C-alpha cells in the first residue's frame, strides 16, 4: 500500500549574527524575516482504477512512468523530463487478489503447472511495488461523478467504504461464466477450482472412464478449450458440438477463417459436430453425462464444458446514462466518458467495458491503457498550469482482427493480411503458452520501477505479437491538439 500522507515544504531559517574580536562588541544588524502564515500543502493527484487486468494495469503503469517524468513503457524510449512530473496516488481496485492471464484459461484449466503460473498475486508483482501505486481487493459498487466519490466493497472484510478521487478509470471488463474463466477471487481458491476442471479433462483423473470430454460451443473459447485438451491429453477423446453450420459464427470474420479453423481443430484430434444443438444434459452419476441432441441422438461424456455463455458487462456501478443497452460505456475517441455526467473529463473508460469498434482483445485493452494514461496525464498538466492546452491521443476505428490458438498451431486474420495458419503463427501471437510471456513482458510486470525498461526494438517486436502494431501506428498518427 502506498502512503497517503501529504508532503509539505518546510523552510528552515537560520539568522546570522555579526561578531567582532574587538573588546567592545558591535551590535548585530537587525534582520527581518517574513514567516509564512501557513505551510503550503501539496496534495497528490488521486487516480482510482476499477479493474486490474490487461487494460487497468497498462493504464496504471504507463501513467506511473509519465508522472515520474519518464516516457511511457509502451514507447520503449529513454529520458526524463522533470517538468512532466506529478505527485500521484494510483489505487487499483480489483475483485481478485492477483493478476490472472485470462486468455490463458484454456491452458490453466488443462494443466496444473500452467494454472499455478498464470495467477500472480499483486503483492508478488515487482512492477506494482512502488509507493505511488496501491491495490485493494474489492469491487466498486457505485460512483458519484459530481462529488468524485466511489463506494467500494472490501472483499476481505465485506465492509463498505467511500474513496475520494480526482480521476476515475473504468477498466473492469466483462464477466464470464464458470468453466470459461475462473470464478474464484483468491489464488488459493482458484487453484482448487482449476484442479477440479483439470481432473475432469485429463486422462487418469478418475472421472471419465474413457467416456471423453464434450465442449459445447464453436466460438473462439470453445475452439481453444477443445484444442488445448486434445493437445495436452492426446489419448483423451474430445468432441466439440456447435449449433451452426460453421465455427466462429458470432464473430465478424470471413468464411475462410472458419474453414481453416475447422481443419486445424480436426488435425489436433478433436471430433467436430456442426449443426447439432444440445437439447438436454444430465449427469447420471459422477463422471457420466448423457447429452441429447436436437436430431434425437445421444452422446455420452465423462466431462462437459459449456463454452457458449454470453459475456456480461460489469458496469453496474456506473450511472445508467453512461452505458448502452448492453452495459457498454459510451466514450469519446480520447476515452473520456461522453458528456452525460458531471465532470466527464475526469472520467475515463477502456478495454472490454467500452462501446467501440473491433473484436475485443487483450492487445486492444492494453493500448487503450496507454491512451488513457497519456490523456489523463495531459489533463493533470493543463489543470496544474504546466501546459496551456491538451494534446490528446485518439482511438481510431478498429477493424476486426483475430488470432486464435489451436493446439500447437494458430490461425490469424486481418483485413490487410488475410488468413494465416501454422506453428509460426502460434509462435508469433502466443509464444507456446497462450501469450503468457508476451503479455507479462509487454506490461513489464517483472521489472521494478527503477530497473531499465525494454527498448524500442523490443517493444516493437512485442507489439507485433499482440497483433496491434497497425492500430498503435494509427493512434500515434492521429495525435491531435485540443484547446483547454
UniProtKB/TrEMBL annotation:
GO molecular-function terms, A-Z: electron-transferring-flavoprotein dehydrogenase activity; flavin adenine dinucleotide binding
Superkingdom in the source lineage: Eukaryota
InterPro entries to which the protein is assigned, alphabetical: FAD/NAD-bd_sf, FAD/NAD-binding_dom
CC per GO annotation: cytoplasm
FAD/NAD(P)-binding domain mapped to chain residues: 117-368
Protein name: FAD/NAD(P)-binding domain-containing protein
Lineage: Eukaryota, Fungi, Dikarya, Ascomycota, Pezizomycotina
Amino acid at each position: 500500500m502506498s502512503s497517503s500522507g501529504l508532503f509539505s515544504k518546510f523552510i528552515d531559517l537560520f539568522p546570522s549574527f555579526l561578531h567582532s574580536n574587538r573588546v567592545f562588541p558591535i551590535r548585530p544588524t537587525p534582520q527581518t524575516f517574513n514567516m509564512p502564515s501557513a505551510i503550503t500543502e501539496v496534495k497528490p493527484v488521486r487516480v482510482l482504477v476499477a479493474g486490474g487486468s490487461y487494460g487497468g494495469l497498462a493504464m496504471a503503469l504507463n501513467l506511473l512512468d509519465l508522472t515520474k517524468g519518464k516516457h511511457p513503457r509502451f514507447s520503449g524510449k529513454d529520458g526524463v523530463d522533470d517538468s512532466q512530473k506529478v505527485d500521484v496516488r494510483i489505487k487499483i481496485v480489483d475483485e481478485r487478489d492477483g493478476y490472472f492471464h485470462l486468455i490463458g484459461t484454456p491452458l490453466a484449466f488443462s494443466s496444473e503447472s500452467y494454472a499455478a503460473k498464470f495467477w500472480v498475486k499483486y503483492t508478488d508483482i515487482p512492477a506494482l511495488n512502488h509507493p505511488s501505486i496501491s491495490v485493494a481487493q474489492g469491487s466498486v459498487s457505485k460512483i458519484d461523478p459530481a462529488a468524485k466519490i466511489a463506494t467500494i466493497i472490501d472483499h476481505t472484510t465485506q465492509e463498505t467504504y467511500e474513496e475520494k478521487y480526482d480521476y476515475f478509470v473504468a477498466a473492469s471488463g466483462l464477466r464470464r461464466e464458470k468453466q470459461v474463466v475462473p470464478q474464484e477471487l483468491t489464488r488459493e481458491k482458484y487453484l482448487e477450482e482449476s484442479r477440479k476442471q483439470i481432473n475432469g479433462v485429463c486422462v487418469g483423473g478418475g472421472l471419465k472412464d474413457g467416456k471423453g470430454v464434450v465442449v459445447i460451443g464453436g466460438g473462439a473459447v470453445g475452439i481453444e478449450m477443445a484444442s488445448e485438451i486434445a493437445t495436452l491429453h492426446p489419448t483423451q477423446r474430445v468432441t466439440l458440438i456447435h449449433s451452426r453450420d460453421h465455427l466462429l459464427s458470432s464473430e465478424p470474420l470471413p468464411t475462410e477463417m472458419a474453414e481453416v479453423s475447422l481443419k486445424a481443430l480436426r488435425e489436433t484430434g478433436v471430433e467436430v459436430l456442426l449443426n447439432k444443438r444440445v437439447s438436454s444434459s444430465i449427469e447420471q452419476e459422477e463422471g457420466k453425462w448423457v447429452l441429447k441432441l436436437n436430431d434425437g441422438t445421444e452422446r455420452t461424456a465423462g466431462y462437459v464444458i459449456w463454452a457458449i455463455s454470453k459475456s456480461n458487462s460489469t458496469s453496474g456501478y456506473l450511472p445508467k446514462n453512461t452505458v448502452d443497452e448492453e452495459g457498454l460505456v459510451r466514450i469519446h475517441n480520447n476515452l473520456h466518458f461522453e458528456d452525460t455526467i458531471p465532470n466527464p473529463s475526469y472520467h475515463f473508460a477502456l478495454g472490454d467495458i467500452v462501446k467501440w469498434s473491433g473484436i475485443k482483445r487483450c492487445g486492444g485493452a492494453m493500448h487503450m491503457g496507454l491512451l488513457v494514461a497519456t490523456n489523463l496525464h495531459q489533463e493533470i498538466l493543463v489543470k496544474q498550469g504546466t501546459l496551456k492546452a491538451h494534446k490528446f491521443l485518439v482511438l481510431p476505428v478498429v477493424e476486426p482482427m483475430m488470432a486464435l490458438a489451436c493446439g500447437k498451431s494458430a490461425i490469424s486474420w486481418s483485413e490487410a493480411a488475410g488468413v494465416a495458419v501454422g506453428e509460426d503463427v502460434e509462435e508469433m501471437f502466443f509464444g507456446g503458452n497462450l501469450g503468457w510471456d508476451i503479455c507479462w513482458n509487454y506490461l513489464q510486470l517483472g521489472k521494478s520501477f527503477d530497473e531499465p525498461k525494454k527498448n524500442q526494438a523490443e517493444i516493437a517486436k512485442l507489439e507485433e505479437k499482440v497483433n496491434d502494431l497497425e492500430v498503435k501506428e494509427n493512434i500515434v498518427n492521429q495525435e491531435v491538439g485540443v484547446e483547454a
